[in-house]
Write a structure and sequence with these properties.
By secondary structure, this protein is an all-beta fold. It has 1 helix and 26 strands. It folds into 2 domains: 279 residues, Jelly Rolls; 90 residues, Immunoglobulin-like. β16 and β17 form a beta hairpin.
C-alpha cells in the first residue's frame, strides 16, 4: 500500500507486512514492513490554550507537540512527557534521520490513504528490532487538578492491524509523581487487549480464532463496523482499525492532582495511534429529554475543533445522532446500533460559528440539546 506524504515532504511508503502466522506470536514469521512516516517540523501550538471553560486538558494533535514535551520524566514535570522506557529501536520507521522509538506525530492511519485526511495523531510502534522486548512507550499528561466528581477523560484510539497483531495499551493514573520507574502509576482506568496467540490456520478474520490478553478488543470485538474495515491492499486481508472514542470517569480523583498516562505496552505487534485527549466537566446538558434518556452530553461546549457526544438510556436502543444549524441544514449525522451507552466524535473545525441543534433520535423518541461553535 502506498501512502503519500503530507505537505511539502517526500512521499511516504507503507509497505507490506506479510502475515505468516504460527500458533504463537513469539514464533510468528513476519516479513519486514517498512512505514516511512513524514515527520514535519512545524511550530507546535498549545491546544489547551484554546480549551473551553471547564475543560482541563484538550490535546488534539493538530500540530506536532513533541518540541514542547519532556523526553525523560523528572517526577514532577509541569509539561507533557514522551518517554521511551524500553529504549529499543522500532521497525515501523525508515528514513535518513534516526527512527524515533517513542511516540511520534503523524497522519491519521485509519484509512487506505492518509493523504486524504486532514487529521493527525500521536503514533507508537511495538514492532521492535528485538521481538523479545515488550514495548514501553509512555505518553504522560501534565499534572491536572480534578475539581469535583463531574469530570471525565475522553480520547480516541486505533490499532492498525486486527485481529492479528492487535495492539493493546493501558490508561493509568498516578497521584504522586510522573516517573514510571517509581511504580506510581498504580490506578488503571482502561485496558485495551492485545493479541497474544495467532490463529490456526493463519490469517483468519474471525476474532474467536485468536487469543487476546484481558481487556477491551477494538471496535467491540470487531463487531462495530464504524471503527474498522477489511483491508486487502497488502496481500492477505486484515481488519484495519479506525479511530474509536472512549470515555472514563475521573470522579475518584475529585480534589486531587493527578498524572494520566497512555502506556503502549504491546509486544511485537505493529502500530497504535491516540488522538483527541480531553479532560472536561461532564454534566447533563440543558436538553429536552425522554424519560428513557438518563443523560445526553456535549463536550466541550462551546466547541472549537472537535466535540464528543455521550449518552445513556435505560434500555438498549437503535438510533442516530443529528446535528443541524439554525437554518435546519444537517451538518453531521451518525447512526448507531442497539446500545444503552454511546459515544460519538465529530470534527467541527469547518463548521461556521453559531448555535447548533443536536438531536439524539431513538426508537422511543428523541432528546435535544444545543451546541455553541466559536
Amino acid at each position: 500500500m502506498r501512502i503519500s506524504g503530507r505537505g511539502a515532504c517526500a512521499p511516504r511508503y507503507f509497505g507490506s507486512r506479510t502475515q505468516t502466522f504460527s500458533d504463537t506470536k513469539s514464533t510468528a514469521m513476519k516479513t519486514c514492513v517498512i512505514a516511512l512516516f513524514t515527520l514535519i517540523t512545524v511550530s507546535a501550538l498549545n491546544a489547551q490554550s484554546l480549551a473551553a471553560p471547564d475543560t482541563l486538558i484538550a490535546e488534539y494533535f493538530e500540530t506536532d507537540p513533541t518540541p514542547l514535551m519532556a523526553l525523560i520524566p523528572s517526577g514532577d514535570d509541569q509539561i507533557w512527557v514522551n518517554y521511551d522506557a524500553d529504549g529499543v529501536s522500532s521497525l515501523c520507521l525508515e528514513g535518513p534521520a534516526p527512527a524515533p522509538s517513542g511516540w511520534l506525530w503523524d497522519a491519521d492511519l485509519g484509512s487506505l490513504d492518509p493523504q486524504q485526511s486532514d487529521n493527525n495523531a500521536f503514533t507508537s510502534c511495538s514492532y521492535l528490532t528485538d521481538p523479545d522486548v515488550r514495548n514501553s512507550n509512555w505518553l504522560i499528561t501534565k499534572p491536572v487538578s480534578i475539581p469535583d466528581t463531574s469530570y471525565h477523560l475522553y480520547w480516541r484510539s486505533l490499532s492498525f492491524y486486527g485481529p492479528g497483531f492487535l495492539d493493546g495499551y493501558k490508561v493509568l493514573v498516578s497521584k504522586t509523581s510522573n516517573d514510571p520507574a517509581m511504580n506510581v502509576f498504580t490506578d488503571t482506568l482502561f485496558v485495551a487487549a492485545e493479541m497474544i496467540q495467532n490463529s490456526v490456520p493463519p490469517g483468519s478474520l474471525n476474532v474467536e480464532d485468536y487469543v487476546f490478553s484481558p481487556g477491551y478488543i477494538h471496535a467491540n470485538g470487531f463487531t462495530d463496523a464504524d471503527y474498522f474495515f477489511v483491508d486487502n491492499s497488502q496481500g492477505p486481508p486484515f481488519l484495519h482499525g479506525k479511530f474509536e472514542p472512549h470515555e472514563v470517569s475521573l470522579a475518584a480523583y475529585a480534589g486531587q492532582t493527578i498524572y494520566i498516562a497512555f502506556l503502549h505496552d504491546s509486544q511485537d505487534d505493529f502500530i497504535l495511534q491516540i488522538d483527541d485527549i480531553l479532560v472536561s466537566k461532564s454534566e447533563m446538558s440543558p436538553a429536552t429529554t425522554l424519560e428513557n434518556v438518563l443523560y445526553f452530553n456535549v463536550l466541550p461546549n462551546p466547541v472549537r475543533d472537535n466535540v464528543y457526544f455521550s449518552w445513556k438510556t435505560l434500555t438498549a436502543e437503535n438510533g442516530q445522532l443529528v446535528v443541524q444549524d439554525q437554518a435546519g441544514k444537517i451538518v453531521a449525522r451518525q447512526s448507531f446500533s442497539s446500545r444503552q451507552e454511546g459515544l460519538i466524535f465529530f470534527e467541527t473545525s469547518q463548521w461556521a460559528q453559531g448555535v447548533y441543534i443536536c438531536t439524539l433520535e431513538t426508537t422511543t423518541g428523541r432528546a435535544t440539546t444545543k451546541l455553541i461553535k466559536f
